[in-house]
Design brief:
about 120 residues; alpha/beta; Purple Acid Phosphatase, chain A, domain 2; 5-stranded mixed beta sheet; about 15% helix; about 35% strand
Length: about 120
């Protein structure tokens, strides 16, 4: 997990991640990991995500903050493409409730609606 721009996130996510038997890892402001042989970077802000995608150091860069689902390929400085994804807002904040589901092997992803959730 990483935190967003809610100041309470820093405290509560850090506290939650330290609970005994918790299987989550809290990275803080940003994090990178390798999963299914894919280099992944996570950050809340899209401008930061786009900059990291441009480096070509990652296969996939994920961000939030926009509250709308985005799947885009960004041409990077190494001559390839980096996939940038914002899953949207599972809470329905100023947009439809969405998440993104995909395949790390093929790097094919799709925006999906959160079932049973209606925006008020």
């Amino acid at each position: 997990m990483i935190h967003g721009n809610n100041t309470g996130d820093l405290y509560f996510l850090s506290k939650w991640a330290q609970e005994p038997k918790n299987r989550l890892h809290y990275y803080g402001q940003d994090g990178s990991l390798v999963l299914a042989e894919r280099r992944i970077f996570m950050v809340h802000y899209p401008h930061y995500a786009k900059a990291m995608a441009l480096t070509g150091d990652f296969d996939l860069v994920c961000n939030g903050h926009e509250h709308r689902a985005v799947i885009e390929r960004i041409r990077n400085i190494k001559g390839g493409e980096t996939l940038r994804i914002d899953p949207g807002s599972v809470a329905g904040v100023s947009a439809a409730t969405t998440y993104v589901l995909g395949d790390l092997q093929t790097l094919e992803f799709a925006v999906r609606p959160v079932p049973g959730f209606s925006k008020n």
